Hints:
Elements: H1 5-11, H2 16-21, H3 23-36, E1 43-47, H4 53-60, E2 66-71, H5 74-83, E3 88-91, E4 103-109, H6 118-128, E5 129-138, H7 144-148, H8 157-167, E6 169-177, H9 181-189, H10 204-217, E7 227-234
Parallel strand pairs: 1-2, 1-4, 2-3, 4-5
Antiparallel strand pairs: 5-7, 6-7
Amino acid sequence: MSFDKSFYEEGWGKWEDMKKFGPMSRHIRRLIKEALSDISFDSILDIGCGEGSLLKDIASHQMNVAVGGADISETALAIARGRIKEGKFYLLDIQKEALDERFDLVVCSEALEHLEDDAQALSNLLKMTEKYLLITTIQGRMRESEKEVGHLRNYTRDGLLKKLNEAGFEEIKVKEWGFPFYSPLYRSFLDHFPSKATSGKFGLLRKAVSLFLYHLFLLSSGKKGDVLVVLATPGRR
């Protein structure tokens, strides 16, 4: 099954609060900042930047970094431009094209599993990566709730690293996270609720529940789980 541009245009009309307040999205931002804590970069491009919450979070902790984002959704880019006035944003399908410039850091978070041609996407990511590529994605059994938001596949750790190596990247560090509170418990729990349970506007109750779950997920293992965080660098060109 493939998902066309209209799916994401409609989706980004209702996913903004999930990305800002959702416990998983907040942990992804936390894990990414941890992975980036000991490297330096002067420019960043977020592929599949969505509404810009991840970019804004990274930029707020890095001084004088040139910030850019790319997405297939014009709706998402409009929100991101409003959130990050100093950023440069591009309408881009990473499966078909790359920008004609390189960035010290390219981030592709929660996007690769949505792409039909992930191999070509990784090839295009290589063309834009000067120093580092940061990937986050999901491994393990795919849940129905994940299919509803556009997931086409889940990876394994070895399978993802193999694809990165074939595209011309070399991994620097790999982290697995989430057992047991995010995965498998919360991931499986979501299958019992319609997708609208995590979409749309978050009122006080959903914000409070999300905050509770965020703190609960802090008890998850930092060495085991279905969330994969990979920091890689281009191999010899």
